[in-house]
């Protein structure tokens, strides 16, 4: 299993202060056959200085500068330079636990039909990790439950043309997974919190939220054939969602009314339980 190389691609733009945490998490990996390519996306800070200090410590770390083009272009350029069979994208302000790469490679080794491996995720200030679950490709078209630092084959990435450099506002990982996967793809989620992301006031997630409508339009227009195939009547789907939402509101109102009339402790507990379910 150690013969398989994993290439960790780390785009970095104005994240030099956090980059050491990402690199330190790689140095602690129990799986030794990895390389890290830090792609400096035209960052105006001391990213290069930080990377070169770590390059002196470990020759598995390399440095790739480029003009500012965005995270998708940075990942694509890093992947082109990668020598590994597998790719692990890692943002410069995130980090992974020591066994993440080892356990991901083991899944691919024991189950070669697997297309993608990821794990549970936590923020840097969470004690619990309520990670969303992959519920199949059809659900992926509606909501992305796979974070950006999943492990996949380089050959699969190159076959679909890498990340879309036009998605400058965000959600490029979701759009990438829509092309990388299909209904037959095997996706494995490790049942451990092995990936940690940092919560900051200003981040790409904030930008993506501000442009969510435009991003959804881009994704849908690019993959209209897939959405049309799996959701052959979008109007009926929207109608069902609206009715479902109205039903939930009606049931919540009825539960509140029922609880006011019933003083029995058992009914009150039942009402609280059902209200939490529909929250």
State the separation between the terminal residues, measured CA to CA.
Answer: 45 Å
- Main beta sheet strand tally, sense and closure: 8 strands, mixed
For the biggest β-sheet, the strand order reads 3-2-1-4-7-6-8-5
Shape: globular
User: H/E order of the elements?
Assistant: EHEHEHEEHEHEHHEHHHHH
What CATH architecture label of the largest domain applies?
A: Alpha-Beta Complex
CATH superfamily of the largest domain: Spore Coat Polysaccharide Biosynthesis Protein SpsA, Chain A
- Count of discrete structural domains: 2
Report strand %: 15-25%
What is the CATH topology assignment of the largest domain? Spore Coat Polysaccharide Biosynthesis Protein SpsA, Chain A
Number of helices: 12
Number of strands: 8
Features:
12 helices, 279 residues, eight-stranded mixed sheet, alpha/beta, single chain, Spore Coat Polysaccharide Biosynthesis Protein SpsA, Chain A
Explain how this protein is built:
This protein is of the alpha/beta class and 279 residues long. It has two domains: 6-228, Spore Coat Polysaccharide Biosynthesis Protein SpsA, Chain A (Alpha-Beta Complex); 234-277. It has twelve helices and eight strands. The protein has helices at residues 19-27, 47-57, 71-81, 100-110, 137-140, 154-159, 172-180, 204-210, 212-222, 224-230, 234-261, 265-277; strands at 6-12, 34-41, 61-66, 86-89, 95-96, 114-123, 151-153, 186-197. The protein has an eight-stranded mixed β-sheet, sandwiched between helices. α2 links the parallel β2 and β3. α11 (234-261) packs antiparallel against α12 (265-277). The model has no long low-confidence stretch (mean pLDDT 85).
